Here is the input.
Amino acid sequence: MRHLKSGSKLGKQPAHRRAVLRNLVTNLVEKERIHTTILRAKATRRLAEKMITLGKRDSLHARRQVAAFLMTPGATEKLFSDLAPRFADRPGGYTRIIRAGWRLGDGADLAILEFIGSELKKKDKKPRRKQDVETPEEEKEKEAVTAK
Here is the structure.
């Protein structure tokens, strides 16, 4: 019986599970939206909300705890400068999980885990360079080759 045994083990050894969750939380803080399985999203949500709570505290001890957990200094800085002030008035519930269908390879349930209030940023498309148009450097190279 599973009485009082909370949390999912994700089918991994404790050290590997901790590393996977640290990476997921770090990516969530950096990108504000990640795609993963539903079980991983639910496990990551608990830790991400704990990081936001530490960020709202903004003491030296909280900074050290967050820095020890997150994988990159940039993620730590973003948490304290951008995310924690955004949720200063909110008492909890900083993330949302949106179901995103099934993975083609193994049929696993997929989800999008994102922070509340994160806007979808569309990537700027670069204009396609035509094959016919040559850059000035290529024109100079052709002239040098034909001059020889």
